[in-house]
Design the sequence.
């Protein structure tokens, strides 16, 4: 009597089905894992940029202008040498070469950068009324996407209508999809070329953050609070001027 060894076609089909389910179950978590690692890496780079901004301010006494492109050099200044020529009231590219940091997030997109005009004056931070507090030119704020009208950093406006916002600079990554989402795009309309660049310059001051939601919102933001900057400058003997 012969004994046949091996698998029947039905048994092989069952084994292949099980293997397919195991492989599929492995690949999905791997994809999520890589997304999480890129988010973590980008957040680390954002924090490094914020530290570099503080270092730049300690050396120069002011924050850099945004760059007009992703080559990493801040834009020129006006005829008086004080104000940023472009992007003084909207965001631009990060001047990464001037700061000595990386230019891209973990997805290979250039970082974006917005600075308050009175904190990027090349002759020093604005020293008008309430100089020790440090008035701001624009009411920069970051709002949670799901809680509209509730800024993460609350805005304070004085009785004389001069701004005293708590944020002087914002840095953000356009995330996995490579474009600014929601209000992080100046005109709140998706870019035709899907690039991480605002379509419209202007007096834009409100930005949005939220948790990562696939295909809906993936921007990553950090910001430089005014009092952290002023305290660092004071400790270095650069504030008040």
Sequence:
């Amino acid at each position: 009597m012969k004994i046949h060894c091996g698998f029947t076609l039905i048994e092989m089909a069952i084994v292949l089905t099980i293997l397919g389910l195991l492989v599929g179950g492995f690949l999905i978590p791997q994809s999520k894992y890589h997304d999480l690692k890129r988010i973590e890496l980008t957040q680390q780079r954002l924090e490094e940029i914020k530290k570099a901004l503080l270092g730049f301010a300690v050396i120069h006494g002011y924050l850099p202008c945004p760059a007009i492109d992703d080559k990493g050099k801040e834009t020129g200044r006006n005829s008086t040498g004080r104000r940023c020529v472009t992007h003084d009231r909207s965001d631009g590219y990060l001047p990464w070469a001037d700061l000595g940091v990386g230019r891209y997030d973990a997805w290979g997109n250039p970082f974006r950068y917005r600075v308050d005009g009175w904190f990027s004056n090349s002759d020093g931070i604005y020293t008008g009324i309430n100089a020790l507090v440090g008035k701001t030119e624009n009411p920069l704020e970051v709002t949670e996407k799901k809680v509209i009208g509730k800024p993460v950093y609350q805005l304070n406006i004085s009785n004389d209508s001069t701004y005293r916002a708590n944020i002087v600079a914002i840095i953000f990554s356009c995330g996995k999809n490579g474009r600014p989402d929601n209000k992080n795009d100046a005109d709140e309309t998706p870019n035709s070329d899907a690039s991480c660049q605002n379509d419209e310059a202007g007096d834009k001051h409100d930005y949005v953050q939220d948790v990562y939601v696939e295909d809906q919102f993936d921007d990553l933001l950090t910001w430089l609070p005014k009092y952290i900057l002023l305290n660092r400058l004071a400790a270095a003997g650069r504030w008040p001027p």
